[in-house]
Write a structure and sequence with these properties.
This protein is α+β, with helices and mostly antiparallel strands and about 230 residues long. Helices cover about 20% and strands about 30% of the residues.
Length: about 230
């Protein structure tokens, strides 16, 4: 039996996260880093707009780093998953409650990076940066996926993609309307794939997050046509 999966999206309702305009709850501040090279290492690996940066999301950094100074915004509410910036694919700090919950589930390789989260002059080291590299394009069955360009306002146009090379040649922003994965481990309870900016979780983990009242994320039920996983 193929397990059911859900998509995790960040919570952006102001009354739940404390910030408006869907902005981050916390921000990295290079000026306040004692060792500014640690900030630069993060930016260069995860957010450098060079050809290699996108594929960095599929591996661990070769250099270790930590977040010496993460500033909580004045109105932000502390949530279990805490959205920070600047970030792209991997955007969450997680508290002890999340880390303890994840111990009982099957995840791909991951790591927690030390973080000091400041609010005014006080700080807490309760939060860690949670990073699990995304599965690369080798697990994507491009021929079976559905892609489009455009949007609901201007109109979507379906595009035919047969290979990874064809996908990478597309210049316009691409909508991934249906993701089909191949040769995939159906036992995972959490995973990221390079073709999607949002992680996926199993129904087991979804139920546990709800039971534990985990905050800071939205759990979105997927239509059967949105994500297809073949072992």
């Amino acid at each position: 039996m193929i397990p059911k999966y859900y998509r995790i999206e960040r919570e952006y309702e102001p009354k739940l996260v404390g910030v408006k305009d869907a902005s981050a709850q916390a921000e990295l501040n290079r000026k306040s880093f004692v060792h500014k090279e640690k900030y630069d290492e993060y930016i260069n690996f995860f957010l450098s707009y060079q050809g290699e940066w996108f594929y960095n999301q599929t591996r661990f950094p070769t250099l270790d780093f930590d977040f010496e100074y993460m500033k909580l915004k004045k109105t932000a509410i502390l949530t279990d998953f805490l959205y920070f910036g600047p970030s792209f694919y991997h955007r969450y700090l997680v508290d002890r409650k999340v880390r303890e919950t994840l111990k009982n589930f099957r995840l791909p390789p991951f790591k927690y990076y030390e973080t000091k989260l400041y609010s005014n002059s006080e700080f807490t080291d309760e939060y860690k940066f949670f990073y699990s590299p995304s599965f690369n394009y080798d697990f994507v069955d491009f021929e079976q996926c559905h892609f489009s360009v455009g949007n609901n306002r201007t109109g979507k146009k379906h595009i035919q993609v047969q290979t990874k090379e064809q996908f990478l040649e597309i210049k316009d922003p691409v909508n991934t309307d249906k993701i089909v994965l191949k040769n995939f481990d159906l036992g995972l309870d959490y995973f990221n794939v390079l073709i999607s900016p949002n992680p996926f979780i199993s129904e087991r983990l979804k139920n546990k997050f709800i039971e534990q009242k985990i905050t800071g994320i939205r759990i979105v039920e997927l239509d059967e046509s949105e994500l297809v996983i073949n072992a």
